[in-house]
Amino acid sequence: MTNLKSPSGDRDDFFNMAAKSVAYRHFQKALAQWPIDILRPQVSFQHVMRRRIDKQLGPSTPDTSIYDPAKESKDTLVTPLKPYDEQAQLAQVNALYSFLENRYSKKYPLSDRLLKPLSNPGYYENLMKELDEAPKRSFFGRLLNSWKGFVRLS
Length: 154
Known about the structure:
Layout: H1 11-33, H2 45-57, H3 86-100, H4 103-107, H5 112-115, H6 123-133, H7 139-150
């Protein structure tokens, strides 16, 4: 019978690292497919999530859940690390994939009554048109639109 051990000899650490790498790979794959926000390209969901994932699951991250008060400075707020929970990480990956695949919009489709309210039937169509045009506008186009919002002719 083969006994799988890590180079340091601790079997549990070896399996913990292997599980982390599975979750890490899934996170990286999901974030690679995530669309870029064209309205706010300077705010990147992928970048923020990758930093978080690298910090928690990255290949060079040591698996320590021990709080060391000697490393704490007086100015920093330190939260002890929680032990690695593979099921929780994979559930988060599943949530990312569910948004990528539009599972919820397929499972709970919106009715025409909701998309075209009687008070303003073209509201959502106009909103989508505005969102499609916004990133392509020039500086003067944005300035003109902002002034149109201030001055309303009845």
